[in-house]
Amino acid sequence: MPRLLFLMLFSVISFCLYAQQAVRGTVLSTQDSTSLGGVIVKAIDVEEALLAYAISNADGEFLLKIKTEVDKVVLQFSLMGYKTVRKVITPKTTEVTMTMEDDVFQLEEVTIKATPIYGNGDTISYNIASFLSQTDRNIEDIIKKLPGIDIDNSGKILYKGEPINKFYVEDLDMLGGKYSQITKNLAPEYVTTIQVYENHQPIRAKKDIEFVDKAALNIKLKKNQVRPMGYISGGGGYGDKALYKGELFALFIRKPSQHLLTIKSGNDGVSYSSELTNQISLESETTSQINKLFGRGGYGKPSIASERYYRNNSSIVSTNNLFKLATNKTIKVNADYSYDKNSYTQGKQLVYFSEEGNVIVEEAIDSRYETHKLGAEVDYELNDTVCYLKNRLSFSSQFVDDKFEIATGNQLTETRKMNEVRLSNQFNYLRRSDKRLTGFNSRMSFNNFPQNNLLIANNTEAINQLQKVTGWGFYTTESTSLNWSANRRSMFSLLLLINTAYDKIELESQHEETSKHTAQGYKISYEAVAGYTYQNTDLRYEATLPFRLYTIRYSYGNNEKFRLTRPYINLNHSLRYTLSARFALTGKLQYESVIGDIVDFVMQPIQLNYLSRMTPGTGVLEERNRLGGSLNGNYKNSLAGLFYSVQVGYTLIEKNTINSSVVDEETVSSTAKEQKNKGRLFLATGYFSKNVHNIRTVFSVNGNYTLNKSKRIRHSIKYPVDVSVWSVAPTITTTPYKWLYISCDAVFSQTGVSTTVAGSATKTTQDNWTTGIHLSVFPFSGFEVYSKLNYTNIETEPSKYVSAYFLDGGVRYIRSEFEVELKLSNLTNQKVYENTIHNGFDQINYRYALRAREFMITVRVKF
Hints:
By secondary structure, the chain is mainly β. The longest helix is centred in the N-terminal third of the chain and has 18 residues, at about 1-20.
C-alpha cells in the first residue's frame, strides 16, 4: 500500500511539472523600438478562457507560467495608447518578442481610482496615496502601515519577518544600509510608490545563477524635483530642565546624482546617532576580538523608548553623495560624525541562584555614557549583467568615556575609556560569459585598540582596581570563484578562499598586585566550497559542500604554545518549491563546524565591572558542531493585500566547553570549562498581514516561539536549563474617515524557565503585556489633535504585576510649507519604570527614574 501511494504521488507531481510551460518575452514600441512597461499580457485558449497573465516591467520584460494541455495558446498584449495585438504560440515556444503600434483616440471623461497594491513578477508596488493619512510625518509612518512590511524598534525594515538586503532611492543605493536617514526624515508627499523586490539579487551578473531569498525596498519619488526636498526645524521646551532641538534635512535628487545632508542636535531624549546605524549587515566588517571581549559595559537599559529616561545631548552631521558616472556605474562619497552624552538613574536587584540560598545584591547606579564616532567611505561600483566591479575604502573610529556612580554598601566610581580605529578596503570582481561566472574578492581590515581602561575606585579610599587592555588585529579574505552551467537546469560552482586573522591582546591588571597577560598569533583557514544547483520552473535545489583546513599558531601566558592543523567538512542543502505564483515552500538542512579563536587563550580574569569578572579562555580551542533544519512557507496575494508566512526550525548544538560560575555577595565569577555540552533550539515564527482597502484598514500579527535547552554549572553542580519564550504582537491601523486616524498595537509574551535542583524539577514563568493606542483627529484642514497612550503590565514576582501608564499628546498645524507643533510628554507624570529579566536561573529586577512631564514647541519649514 505505501508503495502504491508513493507511485500515485510521484505521478501527480510529474504530471504537474510536465504540464507547466514558462514563456518569457519582451514588448517593444513599433515606432522607436523602446521597451514598453505596464503592458498586460494574457494567455488564453481558443475558448477565450484565461490561463495566466503578467505585466511587463520597465524593460518591457514579462514571464508567464502556463499550465495547460492544449496544442496552441493565444497571447494578448494590451496597453492604453497602443493597439491590442495577439500572437499564437505552441507548447515549444519559450521566448516571444512583440511590437505594438500607437493607437490615437479621444478619452471620454473618466474617474480613475489607483490600485493600492499591484504585483509584477517579483516586484510588489504600494501606491502611497492609498495609505496616506494626515498624521504621517515621514515615510517610516507609511511603511509601518504597508501589509507585508514591518519596522522594528531599531528602525530595521522587515519584509514578511525577514530583514531587507538593499534600500534604494530611485533604484540607486546611496546610503549603503544607513537608510534610517531617509525613512525617519523624508516627507510622504515627495513619494509616489514604495516597491518591494522579492528574491532580490543586487549583483546583476549573478541573476539566475545565485538565488537570494531576501527582499529589497525601492522608493519612487515624484518627478520634476528640480530643487532640494527636506526641512529645517527648531524648537524649545521645558521639563526637568530647558529643552532644545534643531534639525536640517536636505535631499537633492537629479538624474546623474543624489545628495543628502543631515544635521541634528537636541536634548529631548532622542539619540540621533541611531539614524547612522547600518541596518544591512551583509557586508559587515570584521570585529576586533577585544571588542568582542569587553563590549560597551554598563548596567542595563529599560525596554522603553529612550526619550522616556535619557537625560541627554545628541548631535549628528552626515553627508551622503552618489554620482552616476554612466549606465550601471556609480561612485559614493559618504562621511558622518555623531556625539552622544546620555545619563540616567536606576535601582537594581540581582538575585543569583544558589542551592545554599540565593545571593541578592542591591545597587543604585547613576550611569553616564559619552561617545564620539567618526566615519567615512568611498565606494566605486560597476554593476551590469556582464561585469561587476566594486571597491570600497572605509574608515571608522569611536572614542568612549563612560562613568558610573554606584551605591552598594560602599560608594564606588567606575570609569571606562575605550578608543577604537578601523581602516578597511574591499574589492570585488565578477565576469559573466555565456555559461560561466568567474570572480575574485579581496577584503583587508586593520583594527587598532589603543586604549581600553577600566578604573574602579572607592570614593573614600585609594584606587581599588585598574585594568588596561590594548591590542590590534589584521584580517584578510581572498577568494576566487567559478560558476558554470552544464545545461539550462543544472549549474556547478567552485569557491576557493583564504581567511587570515592575526590578533594581539595585552591585558594588565592592578589589584593588590600587578599581573600581565599577552595572547597573540594567527588563524588561517583554507576553504574549497563545491556547489550544485538544479532549477526548473517550479523547483530549485541547491547543495554546497564546504571543506576547510585550519592552521592556527597562538602563544599565550608564560610562553605557552598552541598549534593546530585540521580539516573540517560542512554541508548545506536548500530546496525551494513554488506551488503557484502566490505560494512557495523553502526547506533548508545544514551541518556546520565552528571553531574558536584567540579569545580561548586569554587565561587571565577580566574585570567587567566592580562585581563581575570573567575568564574567557580555557587554553583549549572551542569547537561547536551544529546540525539544523528549517521549513518556511510564504504566501502573497498582492491584489488582495494579503501576506502570510510560517517558519519552523530545529537545531542540535554540541560544544566542547561549558559555562561555569561562582557567586557570593562580593564577586560573580564566570569561566569556561572543557567539557562536552549539548543543547537544542526550537524556533517557530508566523506572520500575517491583510489590507482591507475599502475601510482603509491594515491588520497584522507577528507570532514567535523559542525553546532553548542547555546546561550550566553553578558552584561545580551542573543544571539543565530550559528557557521558553512565546509572544504574539497584533497591530491594527485604520483611517475610517478623513478626519480620524486610529492605530492600536500590543505585545503579549511569556518567558518560562525550568531546571532541576536537588533532584526536583522547578519552573518559573513571567508574563508581560504592553499595548499602545494612537488617536488623531482633524477638526479642519491642516489641524491635528493627537494623543498616545502606552500601558505596560510586567510580572515581577509570581502573580504580582507592576503597571505603568504613559500618556502623550499634542496639536499640530500645517499651512503650505509651514508647520508648528506643540508636543506634551508623560502627562501622567510617571516617575519610575520597573522591569524584570530572567536569564536562566538568575533574575534581575530593574527600577528606572523617568523624565518628568514635558512640553516642546517645534517650528518646521519644508522646502
